[in-house]
Amino acid sequence: MIITCKKGAPQSEIDKILSEFKTKGLEVNLITGTSYNVFGIVGDTTVIDDRRLMSNPWVENVTRVAAPYKKVNRLFHPEDSIIDVDGIKVGGHEKIVVIGGPCSVEGLDQICELAQDVKDAGGCMLRGGAYKPRTSPYAFQGLGTEGIMDMVEAKRRTGLPIVSEIMSENKIDEFVKYVDLIQVGARNMQNFELLKALGKINKPVLLKRGLSNTIEEWLMSAEYIMAGGNENVILCERGIRTFEKYTRNTLDLSVVQIVKKKTHLPIIIDPSHATGSWELVESMSLAAIAAGADGLIVEVHRNPECAWSDGAQCLKPDKFKAMIDKARAIAHVIGRDL
Ligand code: PEP
Ligand code: MN
Q1: pLDDT per residue as tens digits for the range 197-206
Q2: Which residue among 99, 103, 205 has the greatest number of ligand 1 atoms within 8 angstroms of its CB, and so is best to mutate?
Q3: 83-333 carries CATH number 3.20.20.70
Q4: Which CATH entry fits the domain spanning 2-63: 1.10.260.40, 3.10.450.50, 3.30.43.10, 3.30.70.1140?
Q5: Distance 313 CA to ligand 2 centre (A)
């Protein structure tokens, strides 16, 4: 961390700043210039609050050299993390995973049929929302516990591990008991109490990027979960909000390699929420694999026109299979399996 103090800063102010670093066990290197005094702080500067430092009128500038996240940081964990989701490995050079299923669980028959479709197409996990974060309070809110139990039955019949979104801390016991990969949706990416609670369990968490969040904010949310002791985090890019209205969101595929450089965590792509349009899902899925993603999470429905949510972005099972077949070919080109 580099702190620049204004010219003429009284020695008493400089001493005040220095003593704070020293009491926190940090090493301070001072460079005295003609116009500025510059401090180079070495050590674990995550304990320093930059905003508070900036409140000192003699402080001109505070620059962080190191990232504010530690557990997530590849610097402290050079090898790729491989997350085990009920026997399916995600990340590293493991097989690319494809998760498929409806936006919402609509009933036992629907989810069990779709689970079989997903499996037949080559998918290795089943997604399905039972608690839905809907923009309108009047829209379908999900089947709740009944939906989770329908997913459990679909798993029993097909063997596919299940992925579902948690919205509130008070459902953690239910999710720990029944769900294999607990999704934190875009809208809850900065629900810090939820993240802290998920840090105390050891089930894998799929952390989606928030609608308007930077990569650093997203990684800090992953840090919340990992700081609590749960290191089983998979990141998911699902498009961000931009000025563009043609697509539901703007898929930021550059994050795949950025995330891989900055962290050791696996990253998967959600082309369904990223585009909002089934017609774009295949091409964005292929691009995601080519870009180095560790997997995809795709909405699938037998009858999208009648889906209870997100029908416009659901692939029918035959299109889902066709997409996987092409994605497999791309995976082979880049030396991976799917
Ligand atoms: C979902 O996966 O159904 C969902 C609501 O996703 P997101 O949080 O990315 O909008
Ligand atoms: Mn959806």
Answers
A1: 999 999 999 9
A2: 103
A3: yes
A4: 3.30.70.1140
A5: 8
